[in-house]
Amino acid sequence: MIIDRARGCLLALAAGDALGRPAENLEPAEIARRFGRLTEIEPGGGGTDDTEYTLFAADLLCRYGAAMTPDDVAREYRERVLPAIAGPMRGAGFSELGAVQALRRGMAPPMTGRWHPHGWSDGLAMRAAPYGVFAAGDPAEAARLVEVDGAVSNSGEGLHGGRAVAAAVAAAMAGATPGEVAAAGVAAVPADSWTGRNLRAAVAAAAAGDAGRLRQAVVVRHYPWTDLAPEAVALAFAAYLLGGGDVEESVVTAANLGRDADTTAAIAGALAGAGRGEGAVPDRWAREIGPATGRCLPFVAGRHVLDAAGGLVAAREREHGQGRAPSGSPHLDQG
Amino acid sequence: MRSGDRIRGAFAGLAIGDAAGWPAARHRSALLAPWSRRLARELDAFAEEHRLTTLPVPFALNQPVEPLALGPSDDAEWLAWTALTIGQDRAAAFGALAGRDDLRARVSVRTALDNLAAGKPPPASGHDNPHFFDDAAAVRAVAFGAAGADPRADAEVTNSGDGVLAAVAVAAAVAELVAGAPAEAAVVAALAELPGDTAIGHAARLALAAARAAGDPFAAVPALDAVLLDHVYSYGVGAAQTVAVALALTEVSGGALAAAVPAAACLASLADSAPALTGALTGACTGLSAQPAGWTAAARTLAGCCLPELAGTDLIDIAGGLV
């Protein structure tokens, strides 16, 4: 069962990434003008940085498990990300670009995540799902682990965004309802934070079924970049709730809201896929998901999200074989 | 005892630095008809299409030419507004601007005004803000430092984290200077407010080390570019960079405005505000009476390019209100 949810989570994430790609940075009205309702993945288009950084995070967990430290993550960037990049980074978020420059300057975490101004980027939230898969049923542990990864690239609200997604996926992996999944995400971030305020507004707007109120509450009007974690994670959670936890409906809703559409659709997909399993991902989407091309992170070229899902489940079992009791039921922290 | 010459010098110095940076003419071109700026954007596209290195500059076809003369822009106007409203509750002062459609301001301020209008008070108005780290509050903090007042309540309306630390550091430095302290003491006072594990604290120490090694302001320019600038992000008003430059150039110039401001203006990507902040600190140190008279004359009269009601106002008169 857990392998089915793990495969569903990462497959739907990749599908959301690919579906949302052509809608990124477009207004909903422009998406409607170009696509009607965007429901089909552009054939041969594939995924973007969301999928490839998710593969990176899954690989980190397979190597280090729950004992992973920020220094381990920084070493992986130095040894496997930096040498494979000739010239500029391609297809990375500002947070990863900024962190790479800080690493090249010889800085160590957490300064690498603070040195650049994009601590709030959704670059961590977009790759947070593997932490929820690995710590299925334990949202607090998922949130702790994703923050270890995020210490290299993010700070502040970017860490909160990662925590919310990882915790929510961990709840969904254990069969929580969409409402419980969203609550697990909200509980994983400080109440007095931008992400916390936006997530509560998103949950309320979704309950009212009001996408206009959602955008009014969480979309920043006078800023041209859309990769703000407090905004993207709120849009993704709302889309997931508006979609009732159904994979196709959640992902399509997120993609058609625009803004950082590949990332919001990927996160909505991860939540819904973890809840409903691989079979809930439309076949026509699954057929479009092949091995990563490595266009963003060359060292993940050739890897498939379904293999990463298997690797994560195996890593989880190794972890539990080393003395930790597997958590059989979700213990959702509602505090 | 606070010095009136140094208080006026801080304000005039900020305006001189503001005027010296290349973005000033772009801000001041906001006073021209919108179609003239549209033509400028089309010329930029033309230059790209035709592979021309002859770059278009702000110009005034069938428009008044005065706005494009050397003069102050956004930072001088927001400083003036701060001095004029300094006795008011800060959320209320900003709240009175929310909803106006004739203002121009940094991303942090625009977003804070939206937050206030949506019922989100400080500090959330400055925290739930994509540009919480910019130097809008640091510029306004020159007024609080000159008045010997705490800049935090003002800074938290529009900024958070490094953006608030920057304001506290600038106010601390200006307060030292208007009390008669030398440049080095002002920099020490500012650094004491900037923890080393923050981006701004780390950057300030890197910038000071680079400038000391270079030995003088102009010689420090390439080293400051190398240690501070990644050139990844699109906007050059991050307080971690601009305040670091201002502190480093203030110290290495010994507080000499005429040496420090031109060096700050050479850092092209920070030229919107690093020269202004550098000018405020070194202007306080130099004092109004010792500043180059031609620069003071060109920089003291506000254009109204951000806050239209300030057009024609004398910034040095406004500074006098704090003496």
Automatic annotation (TrEMBL), chain A:
Annotated SUPFAM superfamilies: ADP-ribosylglycohydrolase
Cofactor note: Binds 2 magnesium ions per subunit.
Binding site for Mg(2+): T48, D49, D50, D260, D262, T263
Pfam families hit by this protein: ADP_ribosyl_GH
Cofactors (names): Mg(2+)
Keyword set, alphabetical order: Magnesium, Metal-binding
Molecular function as annotated in GO: metal ion binding
PANTHER family found in the cross-reference section: ADP-RIBOSYLGLYCOHYDROLASE, ADP-RIBOSYLGLYCOHYDROLASE-RELATED
Protein name from the UniProt record: ADP-ribosylglycohydrolase family protein
Species of origin: Sphaerisporangium rufum
TrEMBL record, chain B:
InterPro entries registered for this protein in UniProt: Ribosyl_crysJ1, Ribosyl_crysJ1_sf
Domain of life the protein comes from: Bacteria
A Pfam family the protein falls into: ADP_ribosyl_GH
Protein name: ADP-ribosylglycohydrolase
Species the sequence originates in: Sphaerisporangium rufum
